[in-house]
């Protein structure tokens, strides 16, 4: 780890801890986040963790940029990750089907695996939430099995159904609401990923762990899922 501080805006600094995305980064990022919150206390406006960085916005009326940098340096002294701080574990039920996950066949062809094996491999591991972005409640997770990695669609869809589960490169995610999108869709979850009544709004937060669980169509409907084919929502 080689911490560096970069200027983002007049009252915003980026603390870069790593240069490459890795699942082992998150314990350090969470530890740094906790330490920064402690030293900045009431002078902290916002702190956003991501794959390799922490974006920190502070109260410019209370701290000069030099003082903010000094506090960052103080927060990172003798930093040690908490082995038990692994976030919340979530299990998201997913109905994997071509009608809602049209790229299942594409991933099958690219990987040389049967569709059933694509599903088994996607649902067979636990993913880490690296960051939230793109849309409220949209959690970037990884890393998927390398054989399932696929580039984003060359032409994004104008409308992707809420709950759609997709893959882009070695990341996976579920769309919290209807939106445009270019990820390879492989299924749909009935889980409510963003809720204004929920503390923090998003179901998932950076550092959380997520497992996708394949469910039948009947179970998907019982859990409140919308099985409208993707074409009907385009």
From TrEMBL:
It comes from the Bacteria. Residues 3-204 form the Carboxyltransferase domain. One of its GO terms (molecular function) is ATP binding. Keywords: ATP-binding, Hydrolase, Nucleotide-binding. InterPro entries: CT_C_D, Cyclophilin-like_dom_sf, PxpB. PANTHER family: 5-OXOPROLINASE SUBUNIT B (PTHR34698). This is Allophanate hydrolase subunit 1 family protein. It comes from Pseudomonas vancouverensis.
